[in-house]
Design a protein that fits this description.
Elements: E1 14-18, H1 21-24, H2 37-49, E2 56-59, H3 67-73, H4 75-81, E3 85-88, H5 92-95, H6 102-119, E4 122-126, H7 141-158, E5 162-163, H8 186-200, H9 220-244, E6 256-261
Parallel strand pairs: 1-2, 1-3, 3-4, 4-5
Antiparallel strand pairs: 2-6
Helix pairs in contact: 2-8, 4-6, 6-7
């Protein structure tokens, strides 16, 4: 296995992704409808860094999962595979629920990371996104910032590198998100993959040919109309489904459950 220092042993030959829809790749579909996502893109980048070495990849992420579901269903599997690299992003769905407590979520997150670092070479963590420009979600910014501070403290405690999504300027562009504004678009997933790749392969920057699209200028009236449409069509139904209608994770399966050659 590798090391929890990304500047240490760069020979990552096995990678397991753990998380929810963000890691599964929702919003980034191939022409045939299969999901790609930043984790798949990162796996491809890491594989290309060592073409003479077999590279294996598993993606255990399932959309709609809460942190306890990830800890119970995915973390033990990831630990059993003993990969060189684990990316672990969890708690986002919990934070969006009314009345959620970022301190309590972080306690569970901390225990999961403590277990993962025992069985994986490198465990990479992720901050939350800065939601100041997203209607409704901007009111959760303090909660997300608190959780992000916990993630950074947990990373320091366990020696884990952190992908800083809070400062990722590219995702401030609306075209980095799908219409529901809850999931990244193909462009957004690509930007996250590039930031993670830059963290894991220092000196081999993956950011060369990426141009940030320019968002069209919209009038204040248009923005208000779009925001009301989004809240009515996407956000309120999303909250309702999670409060009263079960989880998107019900009966779902990971898209790549086994550590197989990429």
């Amino acid at each position: 296995m590798g090391t929890n220092d990304p500047d240490g042993d760069p020979r990552i030959t096995s990678y397991v992704a753990v998380g929810d829809s963000f890691t599964e790749g929702l919003g980034d579909a191939a022409a045939d409808g299969t999901l790609i996502g930043w984790a798949d893109r990162l796996a491809g980048h890491l594989s290309r860094q060592r073409p003479q070495t077999a590279f294996s990849y598993a993606n255990l992420a399932i959309r709609g999962t809460l942190i306890d579901e990830i800890i119970e269903g995915q973390v033990p599997r990831a630990r059993a595979l003993h990969p060189d690299l684990v990316t672990f992003c969890a708690g986002g769905n919990d934070l969006l629920r009314p009345g959620s407590d970022p301190d309590r979520i972080a306690d569970r997150y901390d225990r999961a990371v403590a277990g993962l670092v025992q069985d994986a070479g490198t465990v990479v963590l992720f901050t939350g996104f800065d939601t100041r420009g997203i209607p409704v979600l901007r009111h959760l910014r303090g909660r997300i910032a608190t959780y992000t501070a916990h993630v950074r403290a947990i990373a320091d405690r366990h020696g884990c590198p952190v992908v800083d999504l809070w400062s990722l300027d590219a995702v401030r562009d609306r075209r980095a998100w799908t219409d529901d504004r809850l999931h990244l678009s193909s462009y957004g997933h690509t930007q996250v993959a590039l930031r993670a790749a830059d963290l894991l392969t220092p000196g081999k920057r993956a950011r060369a040919a990426t141009a940030r699209p320019m968002a069209p200028t919209r009038s204040p009236a248009t923005r208000r109309s779009d925001d009301l449409h989004w809240a009515r069509e996407h956000f309120v139904p999303w909250v309702g489904r999670r409060l009263f209608g079960g989880s998107a994770a019900d009966d779902a399966r990971p898209k790549r459950p086994d550590l197989l050659p990429l």
